[in-house]
Amino acid sequence: MNALVQDRIEPPYRDHIVRLGVAVPECEAAALERTLHERFPGQIFTHCIRNAVYDCFVVESFAAETNKWAGLVRLCAALNVDPSRVVTIGDEGNDIPMLANAALSFAMGDARPEIIAAAKQTTRPQRESGVARVIDGVLAGEW
Q: Which of 139, 131, 136, 106 is nearest to 121 (CA)?
């Protein structure tokens, strides 16, 4: 962590920061992500989530190794489950690592193009019960 930033964080919290989130207009989100990666090269993982209620994007930053796929791999190890048996479904930027790494992954049909590109398959939009269709298909042995 940058020394200047680290000095501003109270000692009990300094080594325990999990996430930093910033709400910005959509037009500023990509530039903020770029700036964060330039300022902290190789140290962070970021993604943008669109907040439809407030009509903005939330740019979230985590330690480089922190993402949903890493969490699933740790959970699999704890449960003695092979990660290749994990099926993932997602619709936002924070889902990209798990969609890209899971052996079988589905993007929601109403997700942004970069989310759909990260997944192996696409399901119906949320309003058309896309998650339920994936679960039904997996249980029926379609995949």
A: 106
**Other residues' Cβ atoms within 10 Å of the Cβ of residue 59:** 23
CA separation for the pair 19, 64 (Å, rounded): 11
Answer for the pair 45, 63: CB distance below 8 angstroms, yes or no: yes
The structure tokens listed for 120 are 């192996």
- Among candidates 85, 88, 69, which has minimal Cα distance to 131? 88
Where does the pLDDT of residue 20 fall: very low under 50, low under 70, confident under 90, or very high at 90 and above? confident
User: Which fold would CATH assign to domain 68-139?
Assistant: Rossmann fold (3.40.50)
Domain locations in the chain?
3-63, 68-139
Residue-wise pLDDT for 59-116, tens only, equals 999 888 888 999 999 999 999 999 999 999 999 888 999 999 999 999 999 999 999 9
